């Protein structure tokens, strides 16, 4: 049995289901991200785990106990919000100490735990500073230290990095993962940033309109998205309209109005499909017959790679070209586009495979 499990958990506001029949088992020490567009029910799910919102139905279990309606203080969870919510009139050490004092932890033990946790988040030198004297990243570290110092069974993070600028945000993602792994704490993070979810989670829960659409490792989610919503939400992707015709062992795919066909062993019940392929899996070549061809429309230099768009009979396709020396063809030039058939996914448009 999982350490934390949600079974058929729903939350209705009037007739609107903010979360509907949510089923998830989280193992001890796992880092799970809840990912999805605004309004998909991520925060409501987190708040039900925290005890701040009552489920309309379903069960939440933690460590073998039913906590569905347990008041938040009894759950003893660590929670970090995007606003940090530090006490402005208290120093870093006092902010971190607060939860221990509330729990009547003896002074000597308090001091040891504060020292250890500040060392873990690399803030030992700033123990006597006030929040206003610190950067956003440092304040976020204090919020994490304050949540962890009580040794909670689960850490809940609600968009913890969204107030940080892009570079600091990326740095803090890896810091968060380092700290989580050092403590080995079961963690659930809400985010709408797919890059953040992919880079630091063990598994990602993708949500859409209150429901789970896929739960997978970051790699599986990126490589094998179950439908076109997920493939376009997680990373960049190209879709080519196509038709699928069963041919015994496999399927023949014909791309749009082109004469490009290929065989795949993917099974699909649908005749009208989308061929989905990531930009980094497409190659630009010298055009040749029997190949999809197009004209370069834009070319952006991104540092580690070029992002090239090519107008083809199957639509405008994005191609990521690694910056390995020679720049890609110029705007207006004709190109061929090639790919390994194994890198394509054949999806019934708008539906799970
Ligand atoms: N207290 C409430 N009363 C009525 N409707 C609510 C309430 N809280 C949330 N909702 C609705 O429930 C749905 C899910 O909201 P929720 O905040 O969980 O989404 P979210 O995925 O966290 O979105 P965001 O990324 O914008 O924070 C939304 O349609 C929202 O309007």
From TrEMBL:
GO terms for molecular function: ATP binding; ATP hydrolysis activity; transmembrane transporter activity. Keywords: ATP-binding, Nucleotide-binding, Transport. One of its GO terms (cellular component) is ATP-binding cassette (ABC) transporter complex. It comes from the Bacteria. PROSITE patterns: ABC_TRANSPORTER_1, ABC_TRANSPORTER_2. Signal peptide: none annotated. This is ATP-binding cassette domain-containing protein.
């Amino acid at each position: 049995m999982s350490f934390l499990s949600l079974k058929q958990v729903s939350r209705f506001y009037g007739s609107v289901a903010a979360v509907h029949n949510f089923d998830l088992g989280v193992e001890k020490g796992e880092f799970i991200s809840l990912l999805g567009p605004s309004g998909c029910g991520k925060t409501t799910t987190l708040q039900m785990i925290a005890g701040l919102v009552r489920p309309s139905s379903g069960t939440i279990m933690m460590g073998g106990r039913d906590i569905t309606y347990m008041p938040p203080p009894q759950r003893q969870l660590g929670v970090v919000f995007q606003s940090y919510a530090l006490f402005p009139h208290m120093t870093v050490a006092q902010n971190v100490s607060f939860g221990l004092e509330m729990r009547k932890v003896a002074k000597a033990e308090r001091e040891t735990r504060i020292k250890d946790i500040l060392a873990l988040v690399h803030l030992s030198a700033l123990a006597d500073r006030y929040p206003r004297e610190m950067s956003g990243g440092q304040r976020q570290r204090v919020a994490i230290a304050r949540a962890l110092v009580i040794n909670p069974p689960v850490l809940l993070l609600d968009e913890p990095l969204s107030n940080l600028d892009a570079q600091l945000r990326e740095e803090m993602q890896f810091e968060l993962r380092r700290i989580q792994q050092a403590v080995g704490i079961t963690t659930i993070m809400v985010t709408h940033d797919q890059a953040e979810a992919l880079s630091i989670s063990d598994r990602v829960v993708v949500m859409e309109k209150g429901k789970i659409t896929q739960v997978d490792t970051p790699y599986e989610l990126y490589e094998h998205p179950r439908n076109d919503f997920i493939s376009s939400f997680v990373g960049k992707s190209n879709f080519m309209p196509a038709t699928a015709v069963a041919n015994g062992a496999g399927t023949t795919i014909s791309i749009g109005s082109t004469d490009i066909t290929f065989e795949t062993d993917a099974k699909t019940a649908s005749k009208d499909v989308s061929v989905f392929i990531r930009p980094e899996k497409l190659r630009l070549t010298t055009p040749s017959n029997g190949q999809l061809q197009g004209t370069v429309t834009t070319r952006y230099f991104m540092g580690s790679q070029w992002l090239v768009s090519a107008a083809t009979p199957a639509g405008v396709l994005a191609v990521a070209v690694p910056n390995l020396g020679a720049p890609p063809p110029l705007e207006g030039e004709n190109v061929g586009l090639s790919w390994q058939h194994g890198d394509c996914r054949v999806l019934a448009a708008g539906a799970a495979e």
